[in-house]
Amino acid sequence: MRFRRNTDNGELQGFLDHQTSLTGELSYSGTLRIDGNVHGSISTNDCLIVGERATIHADVKAGEVRIYGSVFGNVEGVRKIEIASTGLLRGDARTASLVIDEGGAFLGRSRNFDRTEDGDAPAPDGASAVDADTA
Q1: How far is CA 92 from its chain centroid?
Q2: What's the total number of domains in the chain?
Q3: Domain range for residue 28?
Q4: pTM tops 0.70, yes or no
Q5: CB count, 10 Å around CB of 85?
Q6: Pairing mode, if any, of strands 5-7 and 93-95?
């Protein structure tokens, strides 16, 4: 694991290299980039970056999730989920903002947060559930 590395959007507090495998529950604060394999669950209020070499078999709950590799499981990104052109999400997504770059793949259902649950403004009309099957 490496620490204190700069990214284009701020400081990276942790890094799991491509030769790393983790099984179990992972929770942390700050920004973590994973390029290895994770099986289990991941939880943070901050940012998770799934690198191009990563394979994640886990349910994820984070403030923000950026997917450049492969994620198999349900993802909850309170603020944002971003799937890059090299990224794959196979599972359901729940977020306030879902961004899929050209070439990115999303196989699952997406749901907007009902912001009234969190005390914020209500979600826009018609923003409840969407089926997405793209490859």
Answers
A1: 11
A2: 1
A3: 5-133
A4: yes
A5: 11
A6: unpaired
Q: Which of 23, 94, 46, 25 is nearest to 33 (CA)?
A: 46
CA–CA separation, 113 and 118 (whole Å): 9
Distance, in Å, from the CA atom of 21 to the CA atom of 36, rounded to the nearest integer, reads 6
**Model pLDDT for residues 66-80, shown as the tens digit of each residue:** 999 999 999 999 999
Structure tokens at 49: 């970056």
Number of alpha helices (DSSP H) and beta strands (DSSP E) in the chain: 0, 15
The residues that bridge with 11 in the sheet, in sequence order, are 6
pLDDT in tens, 90-133: 999 999 999 999 999 999 999 997 654 444 444 444 444 444 55
- Look at 128 and 46; give whichever has higher pLDDT: 46
**CA atoms within a 13 Å half-sphere pointing along the CA-CB vector of 58:** 24
CB distance 100 to 80 below 8 Å: no
Cα→Cα distances 125→27, 69, 119, Å:
34, 32, 17
Share of the chain above pLDDT 70, in %: 76
CB-based contact 128:110 (threshold 8 Å): no
